[in-house]
Design brief:
The protein is mainly alpha-helical and 184 residues long. The chain is built from six helices and three strands. It has helices spanning 17-36, 57-60, 78-90, 100-111, 113-129, 158-183, and strands at 2-4, 46-48, 95-96.
Length: 184
């Protein structure tokens, strides 16, 4: 069994408390079940922890804030996440982050939880404040999303992938320097 938990099982999503609670709960339930079937050699309960995907899924999610949800530049490729899911089916592993970005975001939160959640919450608040169509706008809670249904939200580009890699390499290097500075 492969459970698509999301990094939301490790860190809260701002203004998505119910989503976060369900992901933390699913992660806890799966860890308990993994213990219960640990004596069964041929039963595998696997958790996958992807981050935001470059798909239209986020564009269709119910958002009462009414602001337009765009796909962030750090979003992962859904085909790569699907390939990792197939890999986990062939070679079961208890917990898997499908890409470096999901692992980096989660580990950054583990190191700096208050900074990460406060910064993310401030960014969402700023986006909501900039929404000029707040009046009588229920987002897509009461009406269907007008976004198309397709795999990619934005077509991937090689330049975007290189930029993401450079950004995360820089972030990792910065965190390593910060940690090394604390030890001395």
């Amino acid at each position: 069994m492969i459970n698509n938990v999301s990094i939301g099982g490790f860190m809260p999503a701002p203004y998505s408390a119910v989503y976060s609670a369900t992901k933390y709960g699913i992660r806890g339930m799966m860890e308990g079940l993994q213990g219960e079937v640990s004596n069964r050699k041929n039963i595998h309960l696997c958790n996958l922890y992807p981050q935001l995907q470059n798909s239209t899924g986020n564009l269709h999610s119910a958002k009462y804030s009414g602001f337009s949800m765009s796909i962030p530049f750090i979003a992962s490729d859904p085909h790569e996440t699907a390939a990792k899911m197939v890999d986990v089916a062939k070679h079961p592993k208890k917990d898997t982050f499908p890409d470096l970005r999901a692992a980096a975001i989660t580990n950054t939160y583990r190191l700096f939880p208050k900074l990460v959640i406060n910064t993310a919450s401030a960014a969402v608040r700023a986006k909501m404040k900039l929404n000029h169509n707040k009046e009588n706008n229920s987002g897509n809670v009461l009406t269907q999303s007008k976004e198309p249904l397709r795999v990619y939200g934005k077509e991937p580009s090689k330049t975007s992938s290189n930029l993401n890699l450079a950004l995360f390499a820089g972030l990792g290097f910065g965190v390593a320097l910060l940690l090394m500075g604390k030890k001395t």
